[in-house]
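We close this part of the discussion by returning to an individual protein. The encoding preserves chain order, so positions in sequence and tokens coincide. The sequence in question and its structure tokens are set out directly beneath this paragraph:

===
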Amino acid sequence: MRAFLKQVVTQTILRNAKANQFAAKSFSDYQLAKAYRILLIVINRAWKDLFLITIGIFSAAFGFKGFLLTNHFIDGGATGISLLISATTKVPLPLLIILVNIPFVFMGYKVVSTKFAIKTAVAITGLSLILATVTFPNVTDDKLLVAVFGGLFLGAGIGFAVRGGAVIDGTEVLAIYLSRRLGTTIGDIIVIINVIIFSAAAYFLSVEIALYSMITYLSASKTLDFIVEGIDEYIGVTIIASNTEEIRQMIIEKMGRGVTIYSGKKGYGKQGETKDTDILYTVVTRLELNRLNVEIEKIEPGAFIVMNSLKDTKGGMIKKRPLH
């Protein structure tokens, strides 16, 4: 298999070279190996995205048919619009899932990328097909359980799809577009959209269903955040101190984390005098933050520490198990 892939990569490179009138150029083993490695990365990423999107589709479908549909509960966003229209007009939900999200797919093409739009179209179509063809049991009729667990499975489905580079609810794409046009934040747009949806649910269905649907939305949004951001919240920590070398060794040896060192200047005094200093930057999880502060205080109680929340990290030592 590897030999075949290497042959494909080599032929592709040579064809492109010929097309660009560089046929006479020879390619080193390093260039061919690099192209082969890139191909493997692309293929592995594509399979991983497909797997995540598939899990997301089935999870969302189970949330729909196993909990929400039989109790006429809705969610926020595009899925909420689809559920609301289905509950009031009896139009099949699989059809509405596609129709409601078509504008968001085109918007994703304009706002994000072509690749994102294609993945989203595939995910939405797959969800519609699963809803139309696969039968799921009605798990419970308890309204509170329906609201909580229906939102949980729906939010997990949306989250896995996002992890795979697609969406099955296009509300955030609309929010990105409107925030750029109107100069508002994405969060504000999403809140306004959901207020309109739940107000319509209270009018067309009932106030009780609208209130339970808000619980569904909260459950879905929290689950979505958990799936996308993970259990750990990462904190970027900037440290300005006098004993930078001792603190650096502590972070590496005791915390088991990496450190980036910046050369900077610190200002002090009424005249604003400056002094050369090393600035340390590291990333820890929120669970490790208290320990880091304690260890720094042991070395230098007056150290200046700035902490910022991070959405996620990649590479380095942060994903590894900390030392004890």
Remarks:
- The longest helix spans residues 29-71.
- DSSP finds eleven helices and four strands in the chain.
- The two ends are 42 Å apart (CA to CA).
- The beta strands are 234-240, 260-268, 273-285, 304-310.
